Amino acid sequence: WEESTLHNDLKVIEPKTQSEEDEPPKVELKELPPYLEYAFLGDNGEWPVIIAKDLSSKEKTDLINVLKTRKKAIAWKLTDIKGIDPEFCSHKILLEEEHSPKVQS
């Protein structure tokens, strides 16, 4: 066994309250490739998931029912992933101090 290293530089993210978990995420639905479609785990277009378009009606119903029962396990946003600091996953471009960002055309 290798000993695991404790990373003191990582932040601890506090768990969300029950009411925050019950609120549907506010997401912008984008155009999907022709082989995918949106399905919704809630009413009125809430709790969107992306599924394969070529599933049979029964397969879609079964899949949506399973996803509904496991809804809390789905990370709807980066901040929903327990134990991972969103800053750790954010893209940053590191520049040397004497350089400044430029827009190229």
TrEMBL record:
Sequence segments annotated as region (Disordered): 1-26
Entry keyword set: Nucleotidyltransferase, RNA-directed DNA polymerase, Transferase
GO function terms (MF aspect): RNA-directed DNA polymerase activity
Protein name: Reverse transcriptase domain-containing protein
Species for this entry: Tanacetum cinerariifolium
Lineage, highest ranks first: Eukaryota, Viridiplantae, Streptophyta, Embryophyta, Tracheophyta
